[in-house]
Amino acid sequence: QVELVESGGGLVQAGGSLRLSCASSGSIFSSYVIAWFRHAPGKEREFVAGISGSGSSTSYADSVKGRFTISRDNAKDTASLQMNSLKPEDTAVYYCASTFGPLVEQDERFDYWGQGTQVTVSS
Fold it and tell me: What is the model's pLDDT at position 66?
């Protein structure tokens, strides 16, 4: 069993930055993939970024490439999503998720989810 807890969401103006954190417990952190998804009202949940257990591989949605950076600290059992140059269309609830196995982007492949943290970007 893996427990994930997100933090760091909030309200920011367009062009600003936020850093989301995901704290994990319950298993060997370095053994599983961590990803961030987001869910905006009226839209389907979408993959944002993912990182392999070792941190050597990352993947990003096209919409956030060059603006968001995913990272992890396996010594502290935490992962982060640095979000820069935020746009109003980035407004959503952001979820941290984990899965064992290869780095994937399909949400149905992820077994454990956090409760989500709201990110609101004003124009």
Answer: 98
Residues 90 and 103: their CA atoms lie apart, in Å, by: 23
Residue type, 121: V
Q: Are 40 and 94 in contact (CB under 8 A)?
A: no
- With a CB cutoff of 8 Å and minimum separation 6, the contacts of 110 are 35, 37, 97, 98, 99, 104
Phi and psi at 74, nearest 5°, equal -70, -20
Residues 6+ apart with CB under 8 A from 107: 37, 45, 47, 97
> Is the Cα torsion angle 22, 26, 30, 33 positive or negative in sign?
negative
pLDDT at 26 over 90: no
Instruction: Give the residue carrying structure tokens 């943290």.
Output: 117
